[in-house]
């Protein structure tokens, strides 16, 4: 890996963690339900396949910038470990809430992945 690519990924990571922190501030204390983590993970489920598959993105962005956005920004913006910790915490409070959280995260996340992929790979009107 080149130093340039390493720095690009690091810069993307800085932006992703900053964005994630801002969303956690936006939601504030939500009575224990992890809305901030759910939100960032669902946003990431849409953005990652969109960026990886949209023909204009792949043509117009330098490979280093695309890697910075996908690995750096989205990789640091979303988190599975926090999802797991928050699910375990919810499980101790309410098994129903924990199962609901996992189902929402997975099902809506998967749907947003498909949506991001479909939008990014559909025929472009101006081509």
TrEMBL record:
<keyword id="KW-0812">Transmembrane</keyword>
<dbReference type="InterPro" id="IPR003691">
    <property type="entry name" value="FluC"/>
</dbReference>
<protein>
    <recommendedName>
        <fullName>Fluoride-specific ion channel FluC</fullName>
    </recommendedName>
</protein>
<keyword id="KW-0813">Transport</keyword>
<dbReference type="GO" id="GO:0140114">
    <property type="term" value="P:cellular detoxification of fluoride"/>
</dbReference>
<feature type="transmembrane region" description="Helical">
    <location>
        <begin position="32"/>
        <end position="53"/>
    </location>
</feature>
<feature type="binding site">
    <location>
        <position position="78"/>
    </location>
    <ligand>
        <name>Na(+)</name>
    </ligand>
</feature>
<comment type="function">
    <text>Fluoride-specific ion channel. Important for reducing fluoride concentration in the cell, thus reducing its toxicity.</text>
</comment>
<comment type="similarity">
    <text>Belongs to the fluoride channel Fluc/FEX (TC 1.A.43) family.</text>
</comment>
<dbReference type="GO" id="GO:0046872">
    <property type="term" value="F:metal ion binding"/>
</dbReference>
<keyword id="KW-0472">Membrane</keyword>
<keyword id="KW-0479">Metal-binding</keyword>
<keyword id="KW-1133">Transmembrane helix</keyword>
<dbReference type="Pfam" id="PF02537">
    <property type="entry name" value="CRCB"/>
</dbReference>
<keyword id="KW-0406">Ion transport</keyword>
<keyword id="KW-1003">Cell membrane</keyword>
<keyword id="KW-0407">Ion channel</keyword>
<keyword id="KW-0915">Sodium</keyword>
<dbReference type="GO" id="GO:0062054">
    <property type="term" value="F:fluoride channel activity"/>
</dbReference>
<dbReference type="GO" id="GO:0005886">
    <property type="term" value="C:plasma membrane"/>
</dbReference>
<feature type="transmembrane region" description="Helical">
    <location>
        <begin position="65"/>
        <end position="85"/>
    </location>
</feature>
<feature type="transmembrane region" description="Helical">
    <location>
        <begin position="97"/>
        <end position="117"/>
    </location>
</feature>
<feature type="binding site">
    <location>
        <position position="75"/>
    </location>
    <ligand>
        <name>Na(+)</name>
    </ligand>
</feature>
